[in-house]
Amino acid sequence: MTLVLKGVRASVQGVPILQGVDLALERGEVLALLGRNGAGKTTTLRTIMGLADLSGGQLTLDGRPLTGLPTWQRARNALYFVPEDGGVFQELTVLENLRLAGRGQPEQVLTAFPELRPLWQRRAALLSGGERKILALARAALSQSRWLLIDEPSLGLAPAVLRRLGQAIRDLRSSCGILLVEQNLHFAQAVADRYVLMQRGQSMDEGPIGNLRQSPFFAQAMTFGQREGDPA
What we know:
The chain is an alpha/beta fold. The chain contains seven helices and ten strands.
């Protein structure tokens, strides 16, 4: 089972962003999209979910085209998008957020995410940034989706929380494929199996994460310590 992009081009509000993106994500692996601000990483996730306008190329899931399918139908086809802010419902409690994940019982995630138990009745708006990210991943796990698209999970988190989040992502890998947008190079190397380097809306190189620094595009495609600052 594979999520495949071939020569994908896309725009946001009429502005061309993606100029040719190629990648293939298999079940059971974490693929990191890496590159500078504005390289098109987040737009790639949004295009897969039908939230950006596809203007060319092929986008398939398990051999079937996603082109033309609305976002809700792509989600029904086992795609789950975790945006940069986690996408949790701020006014609902942790338990209520988990119930809205749609499949399974909330208690099923407590083994993998035990830190949520004492927060069960706390509104998401009162959680720390790290707790919201953990809640977002618990929702993703409970959805039982086969493909997770996760945008900047490490942003703004302390090292101890990053380690816990990284372990959660590695654990989720056993049941799904994960496409990860990340600016934190060390975090990406700790959780990903492979990388795709992006620059100016194009995929420039890919390979095992351990070979990342040997890529001829590494120095020009990466900027360290910056956050994703625009819709691309």
